[in-house]
Design brief:
Layout lengths: L4 E3 L6 H8 L7 H16 L11 H12 L11 E6 L5 H17 L2 E6 L6 H11 L6 E4 L8 H10 L2 E6 L4 H6 L6 E4 L2 H15 L5 E6 L5 H16 L3 E2 L3 E2 L4 H14 L3 E6 L2 H13 L7 E6 L2 H8 L5 E4 L2 H17 L6 E3 L5 E3 L11
Parallel strand pairs: 1-6, 1-13, 2-3, 2-4, 4-5, 5-6, 7-8, 7-9, 7-10, 10-11, 11-12
Antiparallel strand pairs: 12-14
Helix pairs in contact: 1-3, 2-3, 4-13, 5-6, 8-9, 10-11
Length: about 375
């Protein structure tokens, strides 16, 4: 079965909204072209353009609904299951809110469950197995790795339960070998996120200096892609890149890694991190070493604490995603799958916005 892909830039066209608010995040020509193409695709899908003066979040929400139009029916009362990663990370808490608010608006039920940790691969599969013996009409899942949920997806297919993947993908070849399939894949361009962070570091440091990349969990889709995007961008710029460090999406681990890195490399100029939790740990380590003003630090996710850190002049930047809209999109696509809607082969909406002190004021209300 062909993979049906909805690749949604949950921050698509944020450039326009931020410009209206007085900011302008950096974009390459290729990225601006992708955003423009996404806007045209949304209009063709039956969506309406965001209103003039809309906030960044309102604009992203309008583009999301345009991308997945036609929207599912309301008031069906069906029950949806959703499986996330640990709720110790505020990204996943906000995503849960997106699921729950969309369920309330559409008149359906949703149960959101999560693993104990970012590495609880078997635990995530166990959650799905438990859900499949209950009365869920569809399940939205954010796999911890590209392969760990395949047995559960195959079991769901056999039981007639629709499955959508949200955020993190599933290995196509392994899924085909297991006779498994997903109805839709709601995601972001994770590699572009890593590249955007690296581009910011390069620009901030004049294209020179020694840099480092702190990845999340090796094997996790978003972690690997963000790492590779940063590494390729740094390499293309000819920068000296230290060996990749593994922070496992953990703040304390990243703090310890950064403390050791800066001791060994006092001339370090920049660091990109696979998420904001790790980036905030890096910031704390640099503060304790009195080196914060010497090293540019970029994270991913634009969680609330990252926003506050940028406003305080500590974290330099974060690549903005909307976990809330991830949850909303997962819920709506699950409902569409139940209704038998066909999904486009490739509706590409690439997240392109990087938030720094220059434009953070335009991100109030983002979630």
């Amino acid at each position: 079965m062909k993979k049906r892909l909805i690749s949604l830039a949950l921050v698509a066209l944020i450039l326009i909204s931020l410009s209206a608010c007085g900011g302008s995040p950096p974009q390459s020509g290729a990225q601006a072209g992708a955003a423009q193409s996404g806007a045209q695709s949304g209009a063709q899908a039956g969506g309406s353009a965001p209103s003039v003066g809309a906030t960044a979040f309102e604009q992203a929400n309008a583009e999301l609904e345009a991308a997945i139009a036609p929207l599912p029916e309301k008031g069906t009362g069906v029950k949806i299951g959703a499986i996330e990663s640990t709720l110790a990370n505020s990204f996943w808490i906000t995503m849960q809110e997106g699921y729950e608010d969309a369920a309330a608006e559409w008149g359906v039920e949703v149960d959101v469950m999560a693993t104990e940790s970012e590495t609880d691969i078997q635990g995530q599969l166990n959650i799905m197995s438990d859900m499949l013996v209950k009365d869920y009409a569809a399940i939205a899942v954010s796999p911890l790795t590209e392969q760990n949920m395949i047995p559960g997806i195959a079991q769901a297919n056999q039981s007639g339960v629709a499955v959508v993947a949200v955020g993190n993908g599933v290995n196509e070849e392994a899924m085909a070998a297991a006779g498994a399939s997903i109805a839709a894949f709601i995601t972001s361009d994770f590699k572009a996120q890593g590249a955007l962070g690296a581009e910011f570091v390069i620009a901030k440091n004049g294209g020179a200096g020694k840099v480092a990349v702190i990845e999340g969990i090796p094997g996790a889709t978003q972690s690997d892609a963000r790492r590779d995007g940063a590494l390729e961008t740094f390499a293309a710029a000819g920068l000296e890149v230290l060996p990749v460090q593994t922070g496992n999406f953990d703040r304390q681990t990243s703090y310890d890694l950064m403390s050791a890195l800066i001791d060994a490399n006092p001339d370090l100029a920049g660091v990109t991190c696979g998420n904001d939790v790790m980036a905030l740990g890096v910031v704390e380590a640099l503060k304790d070493k009195n080196m914060l003003d010497k090293v540019t630090v970029v994270g991913v996710d634009f969680i609330e604490e990252a926003k506050a850190s940028i406003e305080a002049g500590e974290l330099d930047a974060s690549v903005a995603m909307s976990p809330y809209l991830f949850g909303k999109a997962g819920l709506l696509c699950a409902l569409k799958a139940i209704e038998g809607h066909e999904f486009p082969e490739a509706v590409i909406w690439t997240p392109l916005s990087l938030v720094s002190a220059e434009n953070v004021a335009g991100m109030d209300g983002w979630k």
